[in-house]
Write a structure and sequence with these properties.
With 356 residues, the protein is α+β, with helices and mostly antiparallel strands. The chain is built from 13 helices and 10 strands. It folds into 2 domains: 127 residues, no CATH class; 180 residues, Multidrug efflux transporter AcrB transmembrane domain (Multidrug efflux transporter AcrB transmembrane fold, Up-down Bundle), CATH 1.20.1640.
Length: 356
């Protein structure tokens, strides 16, 4: 396990932007391993008996216990302190089952190796953690993880027969993405239900919500142009951006439907609706972009954390006039055209009309 950790550290140090690579399994004092020889087994020794006699040589063995004035006295027999300090483990004599003294080196094979101060376990399995810091000026956590997963960990697992798991920021990001995915599904479902109830239609919410994916396109373009990576702040900002775009779409669609209800045909209703909503949409976009732009020029650590959030809103809102004032009316027109053709087909077949 330690060899695998050392090899992994060696390869991780070659990954650009990854610094301070280390593990949590430091070497401790030197250990001496005793392995029973066939000759020792022939003399009648067992592993347990050898271990007991070696332990007693250094720690002593209890010869007698007796009580004196309500206090237990233990008599322990062991080598004198001076001899113990000078004694090497090879010079220890063991007593064989036939009561003869035999040198330890004749009974066991002694092997030295570096030991460990502790061995960590999780769910009963031994583990060692290899950690490192990512230099954000050079690379990102996602790039490092992709490199390790694709190029390094498979070879380590195959060579040393170990399992490589990803913790730390990788685990945190995975959990956060899972939670955010659930939040996204719940929010979209909630918006759809509310819009379906508001417009008494199953298709109108789809027309209004069609702008949401294009807000993501604006965010991606903004991150690319400013050389930023998408992160959790970007995705959380996307949820807020979706709400703003949906709000503008709701008001525009409501305005168009009001003009249609007043007797205008769809084409004129769209023109009047867009004309009425043009100034509010432009003002909303301008104030949002102008208010968030100074964050992009800040150099403080706090500002750097929220800059992806600002980029998502700024570039998503820059697309808002085109999405809300051009894309939504276009989709609405397609929907009405489809409705008219469907109603005509239903009239010809004797079914009732449909609504959108």
């Amino acid at each position: 396990m330690k060899r695998a950790a050392v090899e992994l550290q060696k390869q991780l140090r070659g990954v650009p932007g990854l610094i301070a690579v280390e593990d949590d399994l430091p070497f401790g004092k030197e250990d001496i391993l005793l392995e029973l020889k066939p000759e020792g087994e022939a003399m009648g020794f067992s592993t347990e008996e050898v271990a007991r006699q070696v332990r007693n040589s250094f720690s002593g063995s209890v010869a007698k216990r007796f009580a004196e004035d309500a206090e237990e006295i233990i008599v322990r027999v062991k080598l004198p302190g001076a001899e113990t300090k000078q004694q090497t483990i090879r010079d220890i004599y063991l007593t064989s089952p036939d009561k003869t003294d035999v040198l330890l080196s004749e009974v066991v094979t002694l092997t030295k190796r570096l030991g460990f101060t502790r061995i960590n376990r999780e769910d009963g399995l031994r583990q060692v953690s290899v950690t490192g810091d990512v230099d954000p000026a050079v690379t990102t956590t996602n790039v490092v993880l992709a490199t390790v997963r694709q190029e390094i960990s498979p070879a380590i697992e195959k060579q040393f027969d170990v399992q490589v798991d990803f913790k730390g920021k990788a685990e945190e990001q995975s959990e956060a993405l899972g939670d955010l995915s659930i939040a996204l599904i719940v929010s979209i479902a909630s918006i759809y239900i509310i819009l379906a109830w508001l417009f008494s239609s199953y298709t109108m919410p789809l027309v209004i919500m069609a702008v949401v994916p294009f807000g993501l396109i604006g965010a991606i373009v903004g991150h690319y142009l400013l050389d930023f990576n998408l992160n959790m702040f970007s995705l959380m900002a996307l949820l807020g951006l979706s709400g703003v775009l949906v709000n503008d779409s709701i008001i525009l669609v409501t305005t168009i439907k009001r003009f249609v209800a007043d007797g205008l045909d769809l084409a004129k209703a769209v023109v009047e609706g867009v004309r009425e909503r043009l100034r509010p949409v432009i003002l909303t976009t301008t104030t949002t972009v102008v208010g968030l732009t100074p964050i992009l020029f800040e150099q403080s650590l706090q500002a750097q954390l929220v800059q992806p959030l600002a980029i998502t809103f700024i570039f998503g809102m820059l697309l808002a006039p085109y999405l809300v004032l051009i894309f939504v009316p276009s989709v609405l027109g397609v929907g009405y055209s489809f409705k008219n053709k469907l109603n005509l087909l239903m009239l010809q077949t004797g079914f009732r009309k449909t609504t959108i």
